[in-house]
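Support request from a user on the community tier.

User writes: "When I paste my structure tokens into the form, the page sometimes reloads and wipes my input. The last time it worked, I copied everything first. Here is what I submitted, just in case something in the input itself triggers the reload:"
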């Protein structure tokens, strides 16, 4: 999909390749040329070549591509994180060891590098699509965060637990990373070690020349200046950057703009990751796209500009001409569009590329004979639906200002640079505002200017009219054979006799096309370890031989081998401190009803023999409870047994005895 920002190299003949290949500033200064990365025109990303990506599902030219995936690869490029975003990264260390239960390879260790520079912070960590703080990972996950400081020390836990594989020399200075230890269980990690991603607040060594402070920023102009001076960027010095232009661009980015929700946000921000393998030009284009602006190299200096109304720096008249001027009144049909579709990265949708509400201008459709012509754009470093719509509108309005001028100027045009605003006022042509989009010294002693019409209305924004509701894109839920749900319920057939030889247990069926069967385990009260009862059972019920209170649990098994969580029927607690008191015509039973018990079974006998006891029909739900219907002088013995919501029973409490009055 094409994106919004092209590269325009305006240089004297034969210089472009030399400028891009090396010695950029020297080559351009020597040629008397200007080099521009701007947001005027068609595509920021070059056409995709039929080559394999560096890793699966990681096409660097797609918005958000590969940004949340971690991967293993012998040689790979690092990444830069701007602003705040969810990212994965290269896995640089993997290790396993016996866990605290003695299971071989029970502990899984992994180190994921998130950024090739120091970051302000590493926040939430995702294991697959689930936050590491989820209750199902309790006691199974340990995460150490390292921000990539210049004096960073090696991870102490890895040194202590990996048997010399990770040493004190593995400091990772200048590399932000997370070190994880996972206890691999079939319930928590049914598909094995998960993908690891984290919410990262990016580079925090960004200089703001307006205040002199250095720290974190999501201002696109400041981030671009930081990248220009970075050792992995353009390696420019701050003397190479025009500071007044940078400050003006930063101020435009920080302007507060209203939104449809009645709130305000800054005009432009940058939040995302870029891969160093994309190259300097592609990275610069993405940063420029995020602020609808331009980066100009002219006179040996970098000029950074953000999109906004341009104040005319000059009025070009016939006195500035050295030859015939050419005015093109309309753009070629192939360059025109009257609607915009765009993709941005939405944090609310797990930081995935998301379609912005499409923009279609009915007035421009009418100008084009009723034909709807859409341009598809990409904004990989934009995370606000309001911001992306402002970028879309600006691009559409700029293209619909169709007059383009080839202006052969005399040396008076030396005062201009690309991106400057001018007023074109020629004889027999009404004055109109324009932007300098091309600048080149001519061999005959003048300056050839390329001008594109642009008026302040391009940047107008009324959120009540211009911003469209994002709506909810329909969620597509694909089947996942590696995940299966647990049975919704489990039930035990409550025994009605004091002694029993087996307990029946049943569970709800799991509706999944990937179901292979079920596993059932039981835990008698006298045993400390769960016992297996068959594997991959096809039925949803079983009769388990046991003569004592027994806990049960069942889980589903997928054909892939993945298992669900357990659904358990625990043994309820027994009644505490049972007592019996004779009352008129009966016996009053009292004691403590345990938490989890929903009713009680009462067994009665004429002697202290449980084997001779029979269960009373009544099942009280609270104590004290009166057994009535006895005559004065009758003595009875009683045993009480708790029953859980699942029907499971506790051990007996008693006997207690009393005589009716």
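"...and here is what came back when it finally went through:"
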């Amino acid at each position: 999909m094409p994106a919004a920002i092209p590269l325009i190299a305006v240089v004297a003949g034969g210089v472009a390749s030399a400028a891009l290949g090396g010695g950029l500033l020297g080559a351009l200064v020597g040629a008397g040329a200007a080099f521009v990365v701007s947001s005027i025109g068609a595509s920021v990303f070059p056409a995709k070549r039929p080559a394999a990506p560096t890793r699966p599902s990681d096409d660097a030219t797609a918005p958000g591509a590969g940004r949340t995936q971690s991967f293993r690869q012998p040689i790979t490029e690092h990444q830069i994180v701007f602003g705040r975003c969810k990212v994965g990264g290269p896995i640089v260390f993997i290790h396993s060891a016996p866990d605290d239960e003695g299971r071989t390879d029970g502990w899984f260790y992994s180190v994921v590098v998130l950024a090739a520079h120091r970051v302000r912070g590493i926040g939430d960590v995702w294991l697959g699509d689930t936050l590491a703080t989820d209750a199902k990972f309790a006691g199974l996950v340990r995460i150490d965060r390292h921000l990539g400081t210049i004096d960073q020390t090696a991870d102490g836990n890895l040194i202590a637990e990996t048997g010399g594989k990770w040493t004190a020399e593995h400091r990772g200075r200048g590399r932000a990373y997370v070190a994880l230890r996972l206890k691999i269980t079939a319930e928590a990690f049914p598909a094995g070690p998960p993908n690891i991603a984290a919410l990262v607040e990016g580079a925090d060594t960004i200089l703001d020349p307006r205040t002199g402070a250095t720290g974190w920023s999501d201002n696109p102009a400041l981030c671009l200046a930081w990248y220009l001076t970075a050792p992995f960027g353009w390696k420019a010095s701050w003397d190479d950057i025009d500071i007044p232009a940078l400050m003006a661009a930063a101020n435009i980015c920080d302007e507060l703009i209203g939104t449809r929700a009645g709130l305000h946000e800054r005009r432009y921000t940058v939040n995302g990751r870029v891969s160093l393998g994309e190259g300097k030009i592609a990275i610069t284009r993405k940063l420029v796209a995020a602020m609808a602006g331009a980066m100009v190299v002219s006179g040996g200096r970098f000029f950074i500009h953000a999109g906004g109304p341009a104040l005319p720096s000059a009025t070009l008249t016939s006195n500035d001409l050295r030859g015939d001027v050419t005015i093109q009144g309309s753009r070629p049909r192939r360059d025109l569009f009257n609607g915009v579709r765009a993709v941005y990265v939405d944090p609310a949708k797990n930081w995935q590329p998301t379609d912005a509400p499409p923009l279609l201008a009915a007035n421009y459709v009418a100008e084009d004979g009723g034909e709807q012509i859409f341009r598809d754009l990409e904004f990989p470093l934009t995370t606000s639906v309001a911001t992306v719509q402002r970028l879309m509108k600006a691009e559409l309005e700029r293209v619909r200002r169709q007059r383009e001028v080839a202006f052969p100027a005399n040396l008076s045009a030396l005062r201009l640079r690309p991106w400057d605003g001018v007023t074109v006022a020629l004889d027999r042509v009404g004055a109109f505002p324009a932007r300098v989009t091309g600048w080149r010294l001519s061999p005959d002693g003048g300056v050839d200017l390329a001008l594109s019409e642009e008026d302040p209305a391009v940047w107008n924004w009324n959120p009540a009219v211009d911003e469209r509701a994002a709506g909810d894109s329909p969620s597509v839920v694909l089947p996942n054979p590696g995940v299966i749900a647990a049975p919704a319920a489990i039930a035990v057939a409550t025994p009605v006799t004091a002694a029993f030889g087996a307990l029946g247990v049943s569970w709800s069926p799991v509706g999944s096309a990937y179901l292979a069967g079920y596993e059932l385990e039981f835990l008698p009260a006298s045993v400390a370890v769960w016992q297996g009862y068959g594997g991959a059972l096809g039925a949803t019920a079983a009769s388990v031989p046991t003569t004592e209170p027994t806990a049960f649990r069942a889980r589903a098994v997928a054909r892939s081998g993945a298992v669900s969580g357990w659904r358990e029927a625990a043994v309820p607690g027994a009644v505490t401190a049972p007592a019996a008191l004779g009352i008129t015509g009966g016996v009053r039973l009292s004691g403590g009803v345990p938490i989890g018990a929903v009713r009680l079974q009462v067994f009665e006998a004429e002697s202290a023999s449980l084997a001779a006891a029979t269960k009373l029909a009544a099942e009280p739900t609270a104590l004290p409870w009166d057994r009535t219907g006895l005559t004065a002088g009758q003595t009875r013995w009683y045993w009480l047994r708790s029953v859980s919501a699942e029907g499971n029973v506790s051990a007996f409490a008693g006997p207690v005895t009393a005589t009716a009055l």
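Agent notes: The reload is a front-end session timeout and is unrelated to the input. The chain is about 10% helix and 35% strand. Residues 1-32, 39-61 have pLDDT under 50 and may be disordered. Escalated to web team.
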